[in-house]
Design brief:
By secondary structure, this protein is mainly alpha-helical. It is 70% helix and 0% strand.
Length: 158
């Protein structure tokens, strides 16, 4: 009966708390400082778009934000629940997604869009794009363009 009431016993959460040391356990970063840092990082990404730089590194971003590399990594891991590459790729994929949906970029090669959004190669772009959207970039573009053309025809007929 207790197993049904306390599911953490069976799904491993209790063992994880008891036996696996928590990452960043000895960090000097307070929860409030961590929260303000994550806000600073998110604001910086929205305003300055550092993810468009295909050479962006954790150390360079930490320097730009005047944060320690360790604290920046901790904030991204704990507050956002992601690794640094996943965090950056999320922004890159979102930028690529917007371009692939835009009829102005319909004639541009997908690989050029990938490079413009900060990816270094086709393989990492395709993998990240599919991971975040569930579709290959070419399929995503085809679907988006079909919707855009259908919407345009509907507006013209009104």
């Amino acid at each position: 009966y207790l197993g049904y009431r306390q599911t953490e016993i069976f799904d491993g959460r209790l063992l994880q708390k008891m036996f696996i040391p928590q990452k960043y356990q000895s960090s000097s970063l307070t929860p409030s400082a961590s929260q303000s840092m994550v806000e600073k990082v998110l604001d910086y990404f929205e305003e300055h778009q550092p993810y468009l730089d295909n050479d962006l590194r954790l150390s360079a971003l930490a320097q730009q934000l005047d944060l320690s590399v360790h604290h920046l990594s901790q904030v991204i891991n704990e507050q956002l629940g992601k690794s640094f590459p996943d965090f950056v790729n999320e922004y890159r994929v979102e930028a690529a997604r917007k371009m692939l949906e835009n009829p102005e970029y319909e004639q541009q090669y997908i690989i050029n869009i990938a490079y413009d959004c900060g990816f270094n190669n086709k393989t990492s772009f395709n993998k990240a794009f599919k991971q975040h959207t569930g579709m290959a970039p070419s399929a995503y573009r085809s679907t988006a363009m079909a919707k855009a053309k259908k919407s345009l025809k509907k507006r013209e007929s009104i």
